[in-house]
Specification:
CATH architecture of the largest domain: Orthogonal Bundle
CATH class of the largest domain: Mainly Alpha
Structural class: mainly alpha
Shape: globular
Number of helices: 18
Bound molecules: coenzyme A
Strand order of the largest sheet: 1-2-3
Number of domains: 2
Strand content: under 5%
Order of helices and strands: HEEEHHHHHHHHHHHHHHHHH
Distance between the termini: 37 Å
Largest sheet: 3 strands, antiparallel
Radius of gyration: 22 Å
Helix content: 55-70%
Length: 389
């Protein structure tokens, strides 16, 4: 029997909005009230008082770590941050002018080949893979960046955390504490977000009982797209296109009149202010003030006002993260990878949750194609001009 005849509720082009694919105890979004919790903890409390490493621990072990647990956890990450030589060789071999997200996807896929325990599905092996993946994302990206610049990759700094190491391995200079903290808060805000597209991609792959590297590779591919993680790069391109404050209103009107989407606005779940945008707006203003230029955040705020006045759309997480990263000096092509550096912790948590209570994710499609088509032997078929041109 075809899928359509027994499909209970064809979804059409609804993009699965509102569909519930399973249970999770990792994070929850209240889209009406603009609230986000990780394992019951409010995102604002975590952003103001925790670190990214604490949040990763929270997601994987269901509680915030004690001081000694945290120290041990950070030491495990630190011990796994260096890239295997074979992986660095892969990064040297792939085209230097690719996007960093493509390089990251390729490197994570290769990493699975170098892990002799790739198919060990025990909880211990899962944690080991989650640690390795979370530890090496910044190292992969910084190494790819430097190789592309014809520079030697820099080894991770043993006493710096995830955020500071990412900045350090780009330049070789230990970042000042405030810059590292700003990036750290951004990582906290991006760590998990319910059943978003990349997390869904990860758990679909995990649900086949494929390995964690494959699941995370799927997720990276999904995050790359401009409707998901790629939007933060689009925001900075838009700001550059606008150029000056006095052009913002006319630019927004022109885009909306042309029915073009403006990156950094709208959300599939939030129908209120994205709580991550609240935090990032605060940080963007602080970073701008301490860098001595608030041009980008001021223009962003004006854009927020103009879009609200015309279209009643709220900003999402990507709107203000763009000016934060730009002011920190992170190259634009590395904005989405920063998202990935954080979200890998959430992806791994969801993959482990999926493995713990697995059911193959296998939805159905509403078949809208032809039926009862008469079979024609190859010798009697007409040429299709689309294929011969
Ligand atoms: N700019 C302009 N208009 C937008 C918009 C945006 N960023 N986001 C949504 N809209 C408009 C749509 O054009 C549509 O208008 P219409 O009803 O007049 O046709 C309406 O709002 C609903 O849009 P839709 O795409 O159906 O909403 P959605 O909830 O399915 O989409 C997104 C969610 C994220 C895909 C969408 O808001 C978007 O593309 N945003 C830009 C990309 C982005 O910032 N992504 C990061 C998400 S965290």
């Amino acid at each position: 029997m075809s899928d359509v005849l027994s499909a209970p509720q064809p979804m059409g082009q609804t993009g699965l909005r509102g569909a519930v694919v399973g249970d999770t105890s990792l994070s929850s979004i209240n889209g009406e009230e603009g609230k986000l919790i990780y394992r019951g903890l409010d995102i604002h409390d975590l952003a103001r008082s925790s670190t990214f490493e604490e949040v990763a621990y929270l997601l994987w072990f269901d509680a915030l770590p004690s001081r000694s647990n945290l120290d041990a956890f950070c030491a495990k990450l630190s011990a796994r941050r260096s890239l295997p030589d074979k992986l660095t060789a892969v990064l040297r071999d792939i085209p230097a002018d690719g996007t960093p997200m493509d390089a990251l996807r390729t490197a994570v896929s290769a990493l699975g080949l170098f892990d002799p325990n790739v198919n060990d599905m025990s909880r211990e092996a899962q944690i080991e893979k989650a640690l390795t993946l979370t530890a090496v994302f910044p190292s992969i990206l910084a190494a790819y960046y430097r190789i592309a610049q014809r520079l030697e990759p820099i080894a991770p700094h043993p006493s710096l955390g995830t955020a500071a190491n990412f900045l350090y391995m780009f330049t070789g200079s230990v970042p000042d504490e405030s810059a590292a903290r700003v990036l750290d808060v951004s990582l906290i805000l991006h760590a998990d977000h319910g059943m978003n597209a990349s997390t869904f991609a990860a758990i679909v792959t995990a649900s086949t009982l494929s390995d964690m590297y494959s699941a995370i590779t799927s997720a990276i591919g999904a995050l790359k797209g401009p409707l998901h993680g790629g939007a933060n790069e689009g925001v900075i391109h838009n700001l550059q296109d606008v150029g000056e404050m006095q052009n913002v209103d006319a630019w927004v009107t022109r885009k909306l009149n042309a029915h073009e989407k403006i990156m950094g606005f709208g959300h599939a779940v939030y129908k209120a202010y994205d709580p991550r945008a609240t935090e990032l707006k605060r940080i963007a203003k602080e970073v701008g003030a301490s860098a001595g230029t608030t041009k980008w955040v001021d223009m962003t705020e004006r854009m927020e006002q103009a879009v609200w006045n015309t279209k009643r759309l709220y900003p999402n997480v990507d709107l203000y993260s763009a000016s934060v990263y730009y002011t920190l000096g992170i190259p634009t092509a590395y904005f989405t990878p920063v998202f990935a550096i954080s979200r890998v912790s959430g992806w791994c948590a969801h993959v482990m949750e999926q493995y713990a209570d697995n059911k193959l994710l296998r939805p159905r499609a509403n078949y809208v194609g032809a039926r009862g088509v008469e079979y024609v032997p190859v010798a009697e078929r007409k040429d299709d001009v689309r294929l011969l041109s």
